[in-house]
Amino acid sequence: MRISTFSSQELIMKVMTLQFPQASALASRRLRCFMQHVSSSSSANGQTESNITLLTPVVTYDPKTLAQGSPFPPTTPGVLRLYNMRFCPFAQRTKLVLEHKKIPHETINVNLKYKPDWFLKLSPLGLVPVLQLDDLVLPESTATCDWLDDTFPGQTRLTPSDSLRRAWDRVLLENVGKISDTFYALRRKADLKDKILDKLEKRLRWFETILSDREGPYFGGNQPAMIDFLLWPHFERLPALTLLTSNSRITPDPHHLPRLAAWMEIMLQLPAVKAVLQNTNAHAHFFASFGTGSPDYDFGLEE
Ligand SMILES: N[C@@H](CCC(=O)N[C@@H](CS)C(=O)NCC(=O)O)C(=O)O
What we know:
Elements lengths: L35 E3 L15 E3 L24 E4 L4 H12 L5 E4 L7 H6 L7 E4 L2 E4 L1 H11 L11 H26 L4 H20 L13 H11 L1 H8 L12 H10 L3 H6 L3 H12 L12
Parallel strand pairs: 3-4
Antiparallel strand pairs: 1-2, 3-5, 5-6
The structure holds glutathione.
């Protein structure tokens, strides 16, 4: 694992332009870029010193997915990389934390149906998200988010210091996956639609109750916390499920679930959420394409 000094005092910006040979395997990517040397600070509250120096990416990668047979996009020492898939709710968590904390990184989108060999070497389970920084390789949404929060505490930690709150956030986290399972259940067992929707409503009411007991409007209180970013991707997809199933019971509405509906509204205003958001039509399209066995990973990107 690469750990070097992470200076809290200053932000060193070094701009350099790199020119890569046109004929390289990455010829299709834009090769002119800037390098900024950014140092972030360790937390002031005496927690573990973070000693990582990050460089801001120098190459702007094409956001299109890399599939089997694509050459490995070379890494740059000191540049944090996220292996991602634009419609993956788990990778979206990591992306949200990166964006919210303004942590410099580059993103490589991976075709998860036809995975490149180099991706399988990095991620033997073949799952995104994965973070890579030099020799460090870290998979799993929650692990990557925790690591980012610990390593780049910035102004505010996203993880609550109160242990009971942390424990309850874990309870919420454990239950959110069941919300997206609804979509797959509805596809597989259309005849059980009412039962499935009843279960979903029950779960959403449970989230509403927990949120109502908090000081709001976020699950984190008056500021978004880690749990808000971990939950959000699953909720962002609910309007698309509503669209696909023509069932309005799926998306929290202000009359029945006012706190959740307000939370969704306020989350949508966060710059990190805006930066990573896919709109309802895009999600619906991706879900539908996934259902046919040909996931349209690059939907919405220019040809
Ligand atoms: N527990 C993992 C789940 C990640 C996950 O399921 N990612 C999906 C995309 S949304 C994936 O990589 N699927 C590829 C595959 O199953 O082969 C996490 O939280 O990161």
